[in-house]
Amino acid sequence: MATPTNIPSNKQKARILVVDDEYDVAITLKTILEEEKEEGSNNKQFEVDVFNDPKLALSNFKAGKYDLLLLDILMPKMNGFELCQQLKNIDDKVKVCFITAYEVYYHALREMFPTMEVDCFIAKPIGKKELVSRIKEELKSNVSFI
Predict the structure, then answer these.
(1) In the structure, what pLDDT confidence band is assigned to residue 5 with cuts at 50, 70 and 90?
(2) What pLDDT, in 10s, does the model give residues 45-82?
(3) CA torsion angle for 27, 30, 35, 36 (degrees, to 10)?
(4) Under 8 Å between Cβ of 140 and 116
(5) Omega within 30 of 0 (cis) for the link into 114
(6) Residue 44, Cβ neighbours under 10 Å: how many?
(7) Considering only CA atoms, which of 17, 1, 21 is closest in space to residue 9?
(8) Is the whole model's pTM more than 0.85, yes or no?
(9) Are 16 and 46 a contacting pair, CB within 8 Å?
(10) Could you give the C-alpha distances from 41 to 10, 32, 34, 65, 136, in angstroms and in order?
């Protein structure tokens, strides 16, 4: 039986990069996502890397390594919008979700980068089930696993 597209197989986990300057937030996101198991099995659905420094995340980023980026917006050294733009210059196919406590940033993104295609904004705080659901929706609508 063929594996449906958009759903990771038992051997393939979705790769997610989390960049948030708040250590506790970043580790909590990683823990929540990596604890998520495939339905009816013990296999993890996500593999998550975490950076607290956006410049360090940028210097370690490689095209094709991640399926989804979870980026905080308000960070020192480089904000999430600037980081996103630079990461998209390296890998224009990677999907992005901004995670923020401030809804006004959606409008700021549209003004600063009117051609950037990002529709995923996740408000902090967010519950575990809702976070996992949003991540799965974004991956299914935008990534094809074969």
Answers:
(1) very low
(2) 999 999 999 999 999 999 999 999 999 988 999 999 89
(3) 150
(4) no
(5) no
(6) 16
(7) 1
(8) no
(9) yes
(10) 9, 17, 14, 25, 17
- Contact status, residue 73 vs residue 79, Cβ threshold 8 Å: yes
Give the whole-angstrom CA distance, residue 89 versus residue 58. 11
Q: Comparing C-alpha atoms, which of 115, 70, 76, 111 is closest to residue 94?
A: 70
Q: Check pLDDT > 60 for residue 146.
A: no
- In the chain, the amino acid numbered 130 is E
Q: Answer yes or no: is pLDDT of 113 > 80.
A: no
Residue appearing with tokens 């990596």:
34
